Automatic annotation (TrEMBL), chains A, B:
It comes from the Eukaryota. It catalyses: 1,5-bis(diphospho)-1D-myo-inositol 2,3,4,6-tetrakisphosphate + H2O = 1-diphospho-1D-myo-inositol 2,3,4,5,6-pentakisphosphate + phosphate + 2 H(+); 3,5-bis(diphospho)-1D-myo-inositol 1,2,4,6-tetrakisphosphate + H2O = 3-diphospho-1D-myo-inositol 1,2,4,5,6-pentakisphosphate + phosphate + 2 H(+); 5-diphospho-1D-myo-inositol 1,2,3,4,6-pentakisphosphate + H2O = 1D-myo-inositol hexakisphosphate + phosphate + H(+); 6-diphospho-1D-myo-inositol pentakisphosphate + H2O = 1D-myo-inositol hexakisphosphate + phosphate + H(+). GO terms for cellular component: cytoplasm. This is diphosphoinositol-polyphosphate diphosphatase. GO terms for molecular function: inositol-1,5-bisdiphosphate-2,3,4,6-tetrakisphosphate 5-diphosphatase activity; inositol-5-diphosphate-1,2,3,4,6-pentakisphosphate diphosphatase activity; phosphatase activity.
Length: 178, 178
């Protein structure tokens, strides 16, 4: 019984909608205190938070205690058909993600579906993924909440100004294309 | 026009249902020749194939040309309620995945939903993920085809004989729990 109890205590709780995007780049919904020990195990260097609301105190404290830097790019969430994803904000956020000094980085918004999905979609375009694969991944994380408007945003997003950035993904994955 | 054409040719096509499981561990549906240049960019060392059918010639050739080792663990696919996932086969497959010398390894079956989903689910149990997070991930990849029987298999799968394996994931991710 004591042994069983110990086993239970050892379980980790990844945040909802958690996934690996690439080496050193992770995504999820909003983490709460139940997720902290899992997040600790990731050895994060930074968190990229995509909502305009202030970061909750418990989360801020967790970041501070673990020496994790917070980058906040507040994107207002409008319900369809009033969608307004700011291109320039996504561009700035991409620069943070692409900088290996920030890895491992966890990208999150509220549910890890729309704002995070758009940002990851734009990253995939930079990685030269074809759009059907980009949308396949977007839909996997957005499920029943998938939005055509988000996918159109990703499709029309202009990567030309980012193409000459020095990529520094932490691994050889995809690197033969760079 | 010529420039645009060149851009198009540079696109890569990840296999359907492609995702990163952990550092050096990838998953997908069945890759076809359209995916080969993407797979090449991953620098794979091995492929773990979970269907009993012989590997298609074009795929075998691709692996041979790129020095990629094939591990095949044929699991018959039965429709519910006749489900029979062999525990021992999953155990052997897990040993291949956990061996860092095989990384990067791509796990795939036909759709990347059931067989691949069960195997990844068992891996998550070894990583001490709580079941709700394991199922969240399983369902993301299985979508409308999610099976309760697969999830029950993962829940009942006994990891005790694997706990003492020397893990050798390629990164620090999750390593603080080991």
């Amino acid at each position: 019984m004591g042994e069983e109890r110990k086993e239970e205590e050892e379980l980790v709780v990844p945040p909802l909608n958690f996934g690996m995007v690439d080496n050193g780049i992770l995504r999820s919904g909003f983490p709460d205190s139940a997720n902290f020990s899992f997040l600790q195990s990731l050895g994060l260097r930074s968190v990229l938070y995509l909502c305009p609301e202030p970061y909750p105190e418990a989360n801020s404290e967790f970041l501070k205690d673990n020496g994790i830097q917070l980058f906040q790019f507040g994107i207002e969430m409008c319900k369809e058909p009033f969608v307004n994803i700011p291109e320039e904000t996504i561009r700035q956020a991409l620069k943070v993600i692409l900088d290996g000094r920030n890895h491992p980085v966890l990208i999150h918004c509220k549910r890890g579906k729309h704002r995070t999905g758009c940002l990851v979609g734009c990253l995939r375009k930079l990685q030269r993924w074809c759009l059907s694969s980009v949308f396949d991944e977007y839909q996997r994380h957005a499920a029943a909440k998938a939005r055509v408007s988000d996918q159109r945003f990703v499709e029309l997003f202009d990567i030309s100004s980012l193409k000459n950035l020095p990529f520094s993904f932490s691994s050889t994955i995809y690197s033969s294309n760079r």
